[in-house]
Amino acid sequence: MDENSAVIEAILREEEENYRNANDDAYGWKTVTYPKRQRKSAAKQQPENSTDRGANGDSAGAGDVFRSIEKHSEERRRRALEAQKAAEDAAGAESGARSKRHSDDDDSDVEASGAGGENGGAEVKKAKAKKPKKPKVTVADAASKIDASHLGAFLLDISASYELQHDIMLMRFADYFGRAFASVSASQFPWTKMFKESTVAKMVDIPISHIAEDVYKTSVDWINQRPADALGSFVLWSMDSIVADLASHQGTVKGSKKVVQPAPSKSQVAIFVVLAMALRRKPDVLISLLPIIKENPKYHGQDKLPVTVWVIAQACQGDLAVGLYMWVQILLPMLSSKSSCNPQSRDLILQLVERILSSPKARPILLNGAVRKGERLVPAPALELLMRATFPAPSARVKATERFEALYPTLKEVALVGSPGSKGMKQVTQQVFNFMVKAAGEGVPDLSKEASEIFIWCLVPKS
Description:
Strand order of the largest sheet: 1-2
Structural class: mainly alpha
Number of strands: 2
Strand content: under 5%
Membrane topology: Multi-pass membrane protein
InterPro entries: TMEM214
Low-confidence stretches: 25-30, 47-63, 252-265
Region (Disordered): 15-139
Family: Belongs to the TMEM214 family.
Order of helices and strands: HHHHHHHHHHHHHHHHHEEHHHH
Subunit structure: Constitutively interacts with CASP4; required for the localization of procaspase 4 to the ER.
Distance between the termini: 141 Å
Largest sheet: 2 strands, antiparallel
Shape: elongated
């Protein structure tokens, strides 16, 4: 704009100078003559010059002067307008260029911003992708880190600190293994799925098979020094924790609007480990808990069956007689119930008793322990259930019948063994006699035959 203004001013100055020069020529000094002397000659020349006068009566010279001024003025205005137009065009072009530059800059900024955003997003995603994941710790990994000497020192310390407070000692014992297996997630120990998919032979080692021998020995030796009542409470607490965890997997209990809360914070792996060690070292504790287990409905049901089988299987590892007694008291009645026993449940129950009877030296062990603290391993009512399952009507035979036929002879022998002539044996004979009389008269050929043979055995004097 400054350059254009300078050009306009230069043009105006030039026009003004030309205007002054023209005025100087029109109004400059001239020779003065006496007008009267020339009046006649002027009158004579008037007709010739009349054509040169303008319409307004002015002389041609004067008209030329004003036309020159007007011409210069118009020329000056024209140049000024052209200069102004040129200046406006130049200003418009410069403004357009500036606007384009701003637009380009804005586009560049937007692109840079977008690129930055994309790069930032990529960096964020990349950072998330690089975020280290927590390593998955298996039961075996956690068990391998348990040091037997450290465990022994810990047990000595709590034994001295709590002295006769055995309940607290056992809870601290569970806490130790809870910390050891705290890093094992539920996905690494899906025990409900493992129990459903495993045979009893495999189930019995879950998860105790991962415990090192020296750690196991240190633990069971310490457990052996704890009194039976404290161990009974501890075993019941452990079973309650497992049942509560099972309920949390199943969601809402039928008939209840409340969702069952999961077990305490202790690792479920640890609960199974310490319970297995307690039952293997002190299996008799389970017999003391039998009334509670039979009467409390929270331990009943087909969904609890795998847990019950696992618990009894642990006791079998310590004492086959205790295992058979618990099987007869809890699981055998389920076999005669059509509503509470399906083929899968029946198979699981039979697997357990087959494992008991197939154990090394099972027969002599069970015969020698047929009577335990005044209680028979296979009482007369249980013998009747076994006999009916082994000798059903031909139309009632199932796949499991053959398995009962293989088990029955040993279980019958355990039921009828005893000291001849003893008071206890006389009571057993009388009870068995009554059941056999009833079974022999039901008209089922195989059942009647077996009942008659036992009936005769009851009548023969025992020497």
